[in-house]
From TrEMBL:
Domain of life: Eukaryota
Stored Gene3D superfamilies: Ribonucleoside hydrolase-like
Similarity field: Belongs to the IUNH family.
Boundaries of every Inosine/uridine-preferring nucleoside hydrolase domain copy: 19-314
Record protein name field: Inosine/uridine-preferring nucleoside hydrolase domain-containing protein
Taxonomy of the source species: Eukaryota, Viridiplantae, Chlorophyta, Pyramimonadophyceae, Pyramimonadales
Any GO MF annotation of the entry: hydrolase activity, hydrolyzing N-glycosyl compounds
Pfam families: IU_nuc_hydro
InterPro entries, sorted: Inosine/uridine_hydrolase_dom, IUN_hydrolase, Ribo_hydro-like
Organism: Pyramimonas obovata
């Protein structure tokens, strides 16, 4: 298992690094889950599934495959929100294939994948945080619906977590789903609004950061050319993505695993800013846009620690160890 770095809550091995993953398990979420459950000093208390790249039931099946190939059937996972706060239909994307994992053949050895545990993902997340107050690092790589519901159901949830690390937002309004909106925020603007107004501070890794920090293909090929089951699995689920992105002349954008890596090892975030961010809830063209008060015009306290630069070399080393 990978052992590079320190815990998100600042510990360096003196205490446990408790982690809760909240995912909509497309291809890049899968890489993030792999990193989380293989990180040596992290204790993953659970995984909550949320609609997004695919329906929540399929998210559960995808998480099961990842846990199986990572030999972590002990990690509990639960089904969460199937729609956003306003109960609207999810925003459809075909980037991750119809099954969310690139329509890769289910080659996993034995096919004995774990099943989701009964009960609400949101309630189990609240329970885990309350059992370890100020110690659990919540990492969200999908729409923020589950996290927002936890804030609404338990008024102490937001103050009981150690940190909240979110992949989401387009802070320069360079959207990937609408002209100005990033996918996770556009899927549930109300949930993003609740989270931004509940937590004293969230760590946010926006879409533009990922666009600026693309990985060269030889790095990805290093991860996917090994004989380990994890490397084979990664190669299988990334195959369609690699072909499509190379055809567009792009390099590899590793949104969700970079967010997980920053949560597990804050040294990967080499430059950050404190800013106030709100989410547009109304605009005909801008609903879901992340509005950053760069000049402090609103005179509101900062609620986001915005990651602006990351160390891709250190990140790639972490992924190397995951696929060994």
């Amino acid at each position: 298992m990978t052992s590079v770095g320190v815990a998100a809550n600042g510990s360096s091995g003196d205490g446990p690094c408790y982690v809760w993953l909240d995912v909509d398990c497309g291809v890049d979420d899968a890489l993030g889950v792999m990193l989380g459950v293989r990180f040596n000093s992290a204790i993953v208390l659970g995984v909550s599934c949320v609609y997004g790249n695919v329906a929540v039931e399929q998210v559960g099946r995808n998480v099961a495959r990842v846990l199986h190939v990572c030999e972590r059937p002990d990690v509990p996972f639960y089904l969460g929100a199937s729609k956003n706060i306003l109960r609207q239909e999810r925003v459809i994307t075909d980037f991750h294939g119809t099954d969310g994992l690139g329509d890769a053949a289910a080659f996993e050895h034995g096919q004995h994948c774990p099943e989701p545990k009964p009960g609400s993902a949101v309630l189990h997340m609240i329970e885990a945080v309350n059992a370890h107050p100020k110690q659990v690092n919540v990492i969200a790589t999908g729409p923020l619906t589950n996290i927002a519901l936890a804030c609404l159901l338990d008024t102490e949830f937001a103050t009981n977590v150690a940190s909240v690390v979110v992949m989401g937002g387009a802070v320069k309004s360079e959207g990937n789903t609408t002209p100005s909106g990033e996918y996770n925020m556009v899927c549930d603007p109300e949930a993003a609004h609740i989270c931004l107004n509940s937590f004293d501070r969230m760590v946010l890794l926006p879409w533009e950061l990922m666009e600026r920090h693309q990985l060269d293909w030889p790095v990805v090929e290093r991860w996917t050319s090994k004989s380990s089951p994890r490397s084979e699995f990664m190669r299988s689920i990334l195959q369609k993505c690699i072909v499509a992105e190379k055809a567009r002349g792009n390099r590899f954008i590793a949104c969700d695993p970079i967010a997980v890596a920053v949560a597990l090892n804050p040294r990967i975030a080499t430059r950050k800013s404190l800013v106030h961010i709100a989410v547009e809830l109304q605009g005909q063209l801008t609903r879901g846009q992340s509005v950053v008060d760069w000049q402090s015009i609103l005179k509101q306290p900062s609620n986001v620690e915005l990651v602006e630069e990351v160390d891709l070399v250190l990140f790639s080393h972490m992924m190397d160890e995951v696929t060994d």
